[in-house]
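Input record, target 12 of the design panel.
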């Protein structure tokens, strides 16, 4: 099995409990509707991973780059970070999954197509990438 990105989506709200169970509000809406510009919007982008135990030992660092571009590839947001590979939930479960939540405050100044991108650099050097398009109308 190879570590991979299962899903990359957008939500209006996101939270995790002590068990890291994820709760999302208004999931996968691909449009932000705003009657006037400029507009300040907050969205959560969620990355669901599978087989992360194949990428390295628990606690090993993952390089993370999260970016949002607007119409004409104008950069609105870029975040660089590191995250640790999770501990397996149980030795009885062969696959270890994980999730990353990115909260983005967007200062939107024009209508059109936007793209959220996430690139992970795993401890073994492999790169995983995901892209999510959404529109401001």
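The sequence produced for target 12 reads:
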């Amino acid at each position: 099995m190879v570590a991979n990105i299962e899903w990359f989506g957008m939500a209006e709200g996101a939270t995790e409990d002590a068990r890291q169970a994820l709760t999302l509000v208004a999931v996968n809406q691909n449009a932000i509707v705003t009657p006037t510009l400029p507009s300040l919007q907050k969205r959560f982008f969620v990355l669901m991973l599978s087989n992360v135990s194949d990428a390295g030992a628990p606690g090993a660092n993952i390089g993370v780059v999260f970016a949002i571009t607007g119409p004409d590839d104008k950069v609105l947001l870029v975040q660089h970070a590191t995250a640790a590979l999770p501990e397996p939930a149980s030795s009885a479960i062969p696959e270890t999954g994980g999730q990353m939540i990115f909260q983005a405050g967007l200062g939107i100044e024009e209508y059109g197509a936007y793209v959220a991108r996430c690139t992970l650099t795993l401890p073994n050097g492999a790169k995983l990438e995901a892209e999510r398009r959404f529109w401001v109308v």
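The mean pLDDT is 90.
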